[in-house]
């Protein structure tokens, strides 16, 4: 796998040229949202300029074109993640809505007292809060697979947690706080051995590595457009066709029905059954363009570029001596983000000093409060990388840390 032409890639992202107080922005908040390259912005603005219309196959030319573009985007996503076809690809608002769709549609109907939902201690609130609340409503129990000292899942504990009482396992593919890459195929296999379903949160995985949902054998898999060079407002729920067919709709309305009478209604075919109302048409066009963009670079290349930067950042931060880094050491089960704390400085203060240097990082609980409780800290700082980041930008991050240390000494 050859290296990325980062300079060439950066020219597609004018936002990276922005300056604050005469300093060029160093954007290291990619795990929250990635930047959007010109081809994606162009695809969306072209859609609004030349194609904009409602979908659901209106009679006129524009509606036909908009419908085709919207439908085709499902095919493109299916191909990208190795799904069987558009029937298995539902467009949602984001990963969070994908979680809620399954929790409400499947969980609320299928779970009851005696059933167990198995999560991991590193779940994002998107899955943790959702399953916790659905379990509370249905009388099901929630169990958490422990993490070990290095921030990896304790797979012996996973084997203890997943039993014949397990109804569904919901696990994050890549942790947005620790950077851990979880063995999701193995977890799914464990779930299936006990006739349980598996839901994988791929919000931090699909943007930066090849993902094949059929190889993982996940029953459900979710991710967001805005973390993979695509627009906000669109997310994906992959689900196995036979499961989606059995599930009740999550939201009702126009566009998702087959036949409606004053008394009752029947549902449209997949995936439309789960996409009521006027959908995110321009965003679907943008997501397709983002997939084209990423695949042209190559997902393997993106993965190794990010891992290289994360490893460099890890080494530089470790060499500082007073920086605590969370998650596994660099290696095959660590992704392109680094969560850390500087001993003497609160993560929020650190992020604020970084901001004085135009270095954009995130500080807070990253929607993993229980995990932070377990780590024994209220907040952490997080630098996360993408295709356009460079080693020089990691150097600027470290220089800003040195500045923060001096200011607070
Ligand atoms: N899961 C993980 C692992 C995430 O990192 C995020 C985003 N921080 C989400 C879920 C939620 O994504 P969204 O806000 O797009 O719904």
TrEMBL record:
The keyword Protease does not apply. Gene3D superfamilies: Aspartate Aminotransferase, domain 1, Type I PLP-dependent aspartate aminotransferase-like (Major domain). One of its GO terms (molecular function) is pyridoxal phosphate binding. Keywords: Pyridoxal phosphate, Transferase. Its cofactor is pyridoxal 5'-phosphate. The keyword Transmembrane helix does not apply. It catalyses: (sulfur carrier)-H + L-cysteine = (sulfur carrier)-SH + L-alanine. One of its GO terms (biological process) is cysteine metabolic process. It is an enzyme of class 2 (transferase). Residues 26-397 form the Aminotransferase class V domain. Transmembrane segments: none annotated. Its EC number is 2.8.1.7. This is cysteine desulfurase. It comes from Halostagnicola kamekurae. The lineage of its organism: Archaea, Methanobacteriati, Methanobacteriota, Stenosarchaea group, Halobacteria.
């Amino acid at each position: 796998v050859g290296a990325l032409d980062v300079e060439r890639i950066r020219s597609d992202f004018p936002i990276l040229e922005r300056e604050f107080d005469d300093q060029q922005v160093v954007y290291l908040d990619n795990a929250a949202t990635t930047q959007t390259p010109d081809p994606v912005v162009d695809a969306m603005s072209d859609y609004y300029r030349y194609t904009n219309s409602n979908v659901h196959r209106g009679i006129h030319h524009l509606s036909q074109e908009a419908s085709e573009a919207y439908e085709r985007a499902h095919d493109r996503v299916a191909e990208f993640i190795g799904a069987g076809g558009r029937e298995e690809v539902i467009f949602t608002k984001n990963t969070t809505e994908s979680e809620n769709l399954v929790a409400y549609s499947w969980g609320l109907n299928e779970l009851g007292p005696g059933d167990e939902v198995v999560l991991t201690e590193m779940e994002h609130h998107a899955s943790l809060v959702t399953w916790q609340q659905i379990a509370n409503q249905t009388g099901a129990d929630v169990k958490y697979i422990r993490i070990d000292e290095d921030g990896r899942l304790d797979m012996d504990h996973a084997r203890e947690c997943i039993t014949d009482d397990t109804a569904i396992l919901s696990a994050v593919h890549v942790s947005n706080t620790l950077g851990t890459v979880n063995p999701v195929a193995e977890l799914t296999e464990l779930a299936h051995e006990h006739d349980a379903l598996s839901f994988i949160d791929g919000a931090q995985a699909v943007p930066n590595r090849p993902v094949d949902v059929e190889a993982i054998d996940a029953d459900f898999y979710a991710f967001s457009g805005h973390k993979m060079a695509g627009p906000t407002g669109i997310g994906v729920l992959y689900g196995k066709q036979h499961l989606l067919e059995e599930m009740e709709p999550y939201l009702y309305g126009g566009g998702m029905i087959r036949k409606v009478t004053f008394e009752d209604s029947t549902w449209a075919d997949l995936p439309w059954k789960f996409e009521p109302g006027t959908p995110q048409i321009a965003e679907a066009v943008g997501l397709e363009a983002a997939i084209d963009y990423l695949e042209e670079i190559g997902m393997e290349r993106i993965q190794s570029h990010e891992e290289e930067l994360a490893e460099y950042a890890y080494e530089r931060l470790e060499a500082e001596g007073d920086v605590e880094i969370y998650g596994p050491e660099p290696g095959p089960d660590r992704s392109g983000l680094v969560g850390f704390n500087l001993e003497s400085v609160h993560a929020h203060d650190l992020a604020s000093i970084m901001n004085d240097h135009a270095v954009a990082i995130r500080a807070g609980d990253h929607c993993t409060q229980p995990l932070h409780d377990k780590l024994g800290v209220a907040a952490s700082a997080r630098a996360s990388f993408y295709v356009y980041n460079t080693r020089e930008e990691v150097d600027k991050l470290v220089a800003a840390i040195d500045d923060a240390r001096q200011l607070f000494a």
